[in-house]
Amino acid sequence: MSTFSAAAWARNAGLYETIRNMPFNTELAAGTLSEERFKHYITQDAHYLIGFGKGLAIAAAKAPDPERMVQLANSAQGAIVVERALHGTFFADYGIAPEVFEASPLSPACHHYVSFITATAWSEPYEVLLAALLPCFWIYAEVGNDILARAASPNPYAAWIETYAGEEFQDAVKTMIATTDEAVAEAAPAVRAKAHDAFDRAVQLEWMFWDSAYRLETWPV
């Protein structure tokens, strides 16, 4: 039987290709993505990382052994501290003051994604939660590598590209894939099915998140 990650990626390979070629990522690679769209994206991504970090922290609390607890707790710290430091640099570059960020509402897509992570974290078992968290790691790693290979130089978004294509992030993603496979391999068939559903939904939400940034999505009412 194939690993969970291999099967999950195969189920979503077509959607990954859609994500890879969507306007936001195509224009980011070309360096032509508008500043307004990138500002919308980094603002929403900073909001998202708070919810994502909480999901990782809950996964750490649910982990079955100390080694996984430490790994997931460190990932939660990375989501909040390391990646938000990158956003902080962009916030300074684009003049997004802390009070402006704090006052900005979550977009519908960001709110949906954070709500999905939060609900899964509190209501589903460890294996399903890992499956819900994995696409954010994995798709960013794949998109980062893909964009790096075709990025225009110079590129105003080089720091973003280098973060997600960087060796440190790539290693963290490999570890998360292995951890998820390890957990789901021992799961009952019903839990494995729920893990696949969670992975599928998170991939859909990854697409929605980038698409919403490109459309400068706000609440319609």
TrEMBL record:
Keyword Lipid biosynthesis: no
GO CC entries: cytosol
Keyword rRNA processing annotated: no
Name assigned to this protein: Aminopyrimidine aminohydrolase
Protein family membership: Belongs to the TenA family.
Substrates-to-products reaction catalysed: thiamine + H2O = 5-(2-hydroxyethyl)-4-methylthiazole + 4-amino-5-hydroxymethyl-2-methylpyrimidine + H(+); 4-amino-5-aminomethyl-2-methylpyrimidine + H2O = 4-amino-5-hydroxymethyl-2-methylpyrimidine + NH4(+)
GO annotation (BP), single: thiamine biosynthetic process
Molecular function terms from GO: thiaminase activity
Source organism of the structure: Afifella marina DSM 2698
Keywords on record: Hydrolase, Thiamine biosynthesis
